[in-house]
Write the structure tokens for this entry.
Amino acid sequence: MKTDLIVALDVESLKKAKDIVGKLYPAVKYFKVGSQLFTACGPEIVQFIGKSGGKVFLDLKFHDIPNTVRHVVAAGTALSAVFETTMGSPEIPAPAGNSARYPVFMMTVHAVGGQEMMRWAAEAARERAAQLKIEKPKIVAVTVLTSAKASDNTQETVLTLAREAQISGLDGVVCSVHEAAAVRKACGENFIIVTPGIRLPDGDAGDQKRVATPALAAAAGSNYLVVGRPILEAPDLLAAAKKILGAL
């Protein structure tokens, strides 16, 4: 099973994010845009990554009533590298041909939003992608944040949420390495596992509680490793990214 690296663009400005993408692409092809960066500069960073050739993991952790989540997932699916006529709207068809590209390949919702919310999210992505005649972005559910300390029932909680996500038609979950092997066993080989909290053996855990090395995450069955500070705070970003890629 292949394990890919997603670099988390957890920075406060468009300029800084562009600089990081410029230094890392094409060695790194996947970039996470979370709430910090998206709040600061909105879809412009998604456009930039798409025009650069990269793909976006839109990690906004949607959690709302099912109807609202349906609309935001449809809008996320339609985020295009070319916005002249669409402006990212789920209601207006995108330009035909090669003038529109869709860099968002994966999005998050919160699993605690419930099965109905997750089901509507899955349906929205599928329907909007069919409208646009593009590949459907993967929708994965956030289970228990890696900043939370492990407890006696953490693994069972994650497994319960993973099963609910799978029943609801989602493509996978976000969980720590410590639950990844159990999720893989319970949900099968085609279920996507996204793992944050990745640190090199000599790295500082920071505010993360349930962490592991890239090699351990790959061995546990993770498909994507989300790495931020170990790369962003390194003196040489590209060297740090290549070190993690080498560990896979």
